[in-house]
Specification:
With 216 residues, this protein is α/β, with parallel strands linked by helices. It is built from nine helices and five strands. The protein has one domain: P-loop containing nucleotide triphosphate hydrolases (Rossmann fold). The radius of gyration is 17 Å and the shape is globular. Bound molecules: adenosine-5'-triphosphate and magnesium ion.
Length: 216
């Protein structure tokens, strides 16, 4: 099955991906974890282009670079792994495009849906876990001792993270809209709970959907 994680930077996606991978492996399943953008040689180059702060990229350029990276990953890695019966866990997928480039940057949502369909070859996650966190709480996690205005001028932030608090508020609203529209697929979780509490909720949701995942 294809499981994706979404949420703004610092919401705890990587933490939960690691926990879920271990859990599924303990159930005897083959698990492949990947993070977007990246995952193939070409896609990793695109990742560097997208995240290096020195580049000034137009919103459409950014959209198409993400889409190119995703198409590489889907065709070369994700589809073959799913065909082999592996579970694939993705740290971000096309919902990130809708939230960041659509709601965040203001690109047309229907146009984005078309680009997403091209980049994914129509592949949809079986389930998506959205970790909901305010941008303020995300920054507090990242810069626990610094004040927020200072944090936004930090050189430690990558190009996407330097886009500012208002941008991240729009991205979060976007995630709320997508979660509400697709509540069958997207499970919204409070990212302020502890990592173990969130993990237990994730395992519970998976067990409800697929009785092969109960571990018994
Ligand atoms: N539920 C949680 N409660 C408190 N802190 C957490 C929680 N989950 C993760 N963290 C901490 O918050 C920070 C960000 O977590 P993590 O790297 O998993 O987030 P992420 O969503 O993958 O972020 P990024 O988008 O930057 O990769 C880490 O220092 C992590 O230890
Ligand atoms: Mg991460």
């Amino acid at each position: 099955m294809l499981i994706t994680f979404e949420g703004i930077d610092g919401a705890g996606k990587s933490t939960q991906v690691t926990k879920l991978k271990r859990h599924l492996q303990e159930l005897g399943r083959e698990v492949l974890t990947l993070r977007e953008p990246g995952g193939t040689a070409v896609a990793e180059h695109i990742r560097d282009l997208l995240l290096e702060s020195k580049h000034d990229i137009t919103p459409v350029g950014e959209l198409l670079l993400f889409a190119a990276s995703r198409a590489e990953l889907v065709q070369k890695v994700i589809l073959p792994a799913l065909d082999n019966g592996s579970d694939v866990i993705l740290d971000r997928f096309f919902d990130s495009t809708t939230a960041y480039q659509g709601y965040g940057r203001g690109l047309d949502l229907e146009l984005l849906a078309g680009v997403n369909r091209i980049a994914t070859f129509g592949l949809n996650p079986d389930i998506t876990f959205y970790l909901d966190l305010t941008p303020e709480d995300a920054l507090k996690r990242k810069f626990s001792e610094k004040s927020l205005p200072l944090a936004f001028e930090s050189e430690e932030l990558d190009r996407m993270e330097n886009s500012g608090l208002e941008f991240y508020r729009r991205v979060r609203q976007g995630y709320h809209a997508i979660s509400a529209e697709q509540s069958d697929r997207i499970v919204k979780l409070d990212a302020l709970l502890t990592p173990d509490e969130i993990h237990r909720m994730i395992v519970g949701s998976l067990e409800k959907r697929d009785n092969r995942l109960t571990g018994s």
